[in-house]
UniProtKB/TrEMBL annotation:
Organism in which the protein naturally occurs: Streptomyces exfoliatus
A Pfam family per the record: SBP_bac_5
PANTHER family: MONOACYL PHOSPHATIDYLINOSITOL TETRAMANNOSIDE-BINDING PROTEIN LPQW-RELATED, PERIPLASMIC BINDING COMPONENT OF ABC TRANSPORTER
PROSITE patterns (alphabetical): PROKAR_LIPOPROTEIN (PS51257)
Domain of life: Bacteria
Residue span, Solute-binding protein family domain: 90-420
Designated name of the protein: ABC transporter substrate-binding protein
Length: 506
C-alpha cells in the first residue's frame, strides 16, 4: 500500500471553481423534486416545508434501524423520554418515572392519540418496547441489555433489567425505541406510516426517493405551524446545496464543506457534533509502549493546522476527548498529569486510517509531516474501513486515526470511554490496560445520572489523557442549510430534532 494513496487536495480556489461549474448540473438532479409543494402562508402558520435529506431509508423507515432518527427529525414518532441540551432525561410520552432496584415504573401522558386515532396506553408502549427488545439484531441502545416491559395499569408500566441500570430513562430516549400504534407491527416488519404520535403524520413513502407528511391536528402538544413536510432524499451533497441556493428546498441536511464556502453565510449553520477525531497510540507494543514517546507524539501534533488546512476552519480544535456538543464538559475538565517527552531519535511508526471519511487520509498526511519534523520516521497505511478495522482492533498499528462518536444513543459518553479505553473495552484500539483508568471508568459507569456522573466522566477523561493513549485532534461540525424564509428549525448536535412544532417557512 503506497503511503499517499490519495492525491493532495486541490487549492481551495480551484476547488470552488470546480464546484461552481458542476452546480448547474447538480441543480437539475433535484429540480421538480418538490413539485406541488408550496411555502405560502396558510392560516395561523406556514405552508409545507421542503426538506432535502442526505441518506435514503435503509430499512423501510423501521424504527428498529438507524432510520429511526429520520422519524424523530420529522417529529412523527416519539419516545417515552427525551434528552435536554445537557443530555439529562426529561418527560415526553412519559410524564414521570421512579426506580426501585432493577425496576423502573413509568407514568404515561393522558390524552395522547396515535395517527390512526387509537389511544396511547401502557399496553401499546409495552408492545413497542417488547418488539424492540426481541428484535434481531437489537437496536444499538439495547446491546447487552436484557429488558422486560409490563403494563401495570392503563397508563403505567414497569421496565425491568437484568441488573441495575442507572441510565434506563436515557436509553428509552433513543429514537429506536419510539412508541407506535398496534397497526405498525405486522409479522417481522414495523411500519411507522400513520402510526406515530408526533405533530406530523407520515401519509406516503416513495421507496428511497421521497416521503410526505401532513400535520396531525390532534397532536397532544398543540398544532404545528407548518401544514406538512415534503421530504426528498438527495445523497449528492452538491445537489443538496444547489437545492438550497435555487430555492428548491427550505431545509437541507449536511451541506458539504466544499459547498459551504459558496453559500450565503446567513443560510448555513454549523452545529458542533459529539464526534471527535483522535490519534490513538498503541500502548501495548511498538515504540508507543514508551510513555515518553507517546508524550513526544502529542507535543508534535498541531491540531490547529489540521482544522485550518484540512477542514477549512469548519471544526473545533480538541481540548479533550469530549467537545462543545457537550456544554458541561469544558467547565468540569481538569488538567491531566502526563509523562515528560523523550526524543524520538528516528523511531519508526506506522499510522493507519481509512478512506471512507474523505478528510482522514489528508489528516494522516499532515500528521506524517508533523511527526517526521519531530524526529519520527512515519509510514502511512490507508485502506477502506472494512479492510482495516480488524487490524486496528488487533493492535497491528503503532497509531490509528479515527473519527469517533463520543455520545452514543443514550446521550451519555461513559459507554464510549469504556468501549475505547477500558482494558476489556470492545473498541480498545490503543490496547490500553491501565488500572487507574479502569477504576475511573467503572466509577463513572456506576454513578447515577446527573452532576456526579458528569464529574465522574470528566475524571475518567483526565485519567485516559494522562496516559497519552489518545491524542484528541478536533471535534467535527455538521453544516445545516435553512432558507432565508425558514424559522424555528432545530440545530441539534445529536441529530434527533430538525423540524418541530415551531418550524415553518414564511
Amino acid at each position: 500500500m503506497p503511503e499517499n494513496p490519495r492525491p493532495p487536495r486541490r487549492p481551495l480556489r480551484r476547488l470552488r471553481l470546480l464546484s461552481l461549474l458542476v452546480t448547474g448540473a447538480a441543480a437539475t438532479l433535484i429540480t421538480g423534486c418538490f413539485s406541488g409543494s408550496g411555502t405560502s402562508a396558510q392560516g395561523d402558520g406556514g405552508g409545507r416545508l421542503r426538506l432535502a435529506m442526505m441518506q435514503p431509508p435503509r430499512s423501510g423507515l423501521s424504527p428498529l434501524s438507524d432510520d429511526a432518527f429520520k422519524l424523530s427529525r420529522w417529529s412523527t414518532a416519539e419516545t417515552l423520554v427525551k434528552l435536554d441540551r445537557d443530555g439529562d432525561a426529561r418527560p415526553a410520552l412519559a410524564t414521570g418515572w421512579k426506580q426501585n432496584g432493577r425496576t423502573w415504573t413509568f407514568t404515561l401522558r393522558q390524552g395522547v392519540t396515535f395517527h390512526d386515532g387509537t389511544a396511547l396506553t401502557a399496553h401499546s408502549a409495552v408492545t413497542s418496547l417488547t418488539t424492540a427488545a426481541g428484535a434481531s439484531p437489537k437496536p444499538r441502545i439495547l446491546d447487552g441489555v436484557d429488558l422486560t416491559a409490563r403494563a401495570t395499569g392503563s397508563h403505567t408500566l414497569t421496565v425491568t433489567t437484568a441488573g441495575p441500570d442507572p441510565l434506563l430513562p436515557h436509553r428509552l430516549s433513543s429514537p429506536q425505541l419510539s412508541i407506535l400504534a398496534a397497526k405498525a407491527y405486522r409479522g417481522k416488519t414495523v411500519s411507522p406510516v400513520g402510526a406515530g404520535t408526533g405533530p406530523f403524520e407520515i401519509v406516503a413513502v416513495n421507496g428511497v426517493a421521497s416521503a410526505r407528511l401532513d400535520r396531525y391536528d390532534r397532536y397532544w402538544g398543540g398544532k404545528a405551524k407548518a401544514s406538512g413536510i415534503d421530504v426528498r432524499f438527495v445523497p449528492d451533497g452538491t445537489a443538496r446545496a444547489a437545492a438550497l441556493r435555487s430555492g428548491e428546498a427550505d431545509i437541507v441536511e449536511a451541506v458539504p464543506v466544499s459547498q459551504a464556502g459558496l453559500m450565503d453565510r446567513k443560510l448555513i449553520t454549523e452545529v458542533p457534533m459529539p464526534r471527535t477525531n483522535t490519534l490513538y497510540l498503541n500502548t501495548r507494543s511498538g515504540p508507543f509502549k514508551d510513555a515518553g514517546l507517546r508524550a513526544a507524539a502529542r507535543e508534535a501534533v498541531d491540531a490547529e493546522q489540521i482544522v485550518t488546512g484540512v477542514y477549512e476552519g469548519r471544526a473545533d480544535v480538541a481540548r479533550g476527548l469530549l467537545g462543545p456538543a457537550l456544554p458541561w464538559a469544558t467547565a468540569l475538565r481538569g488538567a491531566p498529569e502526563r509523562a515528560a517527552a523523550t526524543a524520538p531519535r528516528g523511531a519508526r511508526i506506522t499510522i493507519g486510517t481509512f478512506t471512507d471519511r474523505a478528510e482522514l487520509p489528508e489528516v494522516a498526511q499532515v500528521l506524517q509531516q508533523q511527526l517526521q519534523a519531530a524526529g519520527f520516521q512515519v509510514t502511512l497505511d490507508i485502506r477502506e474501513y472494512a479492510h482495516i478495522e480488524a487490524d486496528a482492533l488487533a493492535g497491528k498499528f503503532d497509531a490509528f486515526i479515527l473519527s469517533r462518536a463520543t455520545v452514543l444513543d443514550s446521550g451519555d459518553p461513559a459507554a464510549y470511554l469504556f468501549s475505547d479505553f477500558a482494558a476489556g473495552g470492545s473498541f480498545n484500539i490503543s490496547q490500553l490496560a491501565d488500572p487507574a483508568v479502569d477504576r475511573a471508568l467503572n466509577t463513572a459507569a456506576q454513578t447515577p445520572a446527573g452532576d456526579a456522573r458528569r464529574r465522574g466522566i470528566m475524571n475518567a477523561e483526565a485519567a485516559v489523557l494522562s496516559t497519552d493513549a489518545a491524542v484528541p485532534l478536533l471535534h467535527e461540525r455538521v453544516i445545516q442549510g435553512d432558507a432565508a424564509n425558514v424559522s424555528g428549525a432545530a440545530h441539534d448536535p445529536r441529530e434527533r430534532e430538525l423540524i418541530t412544532l415551531d418550524t415553518f417557512a414564511r
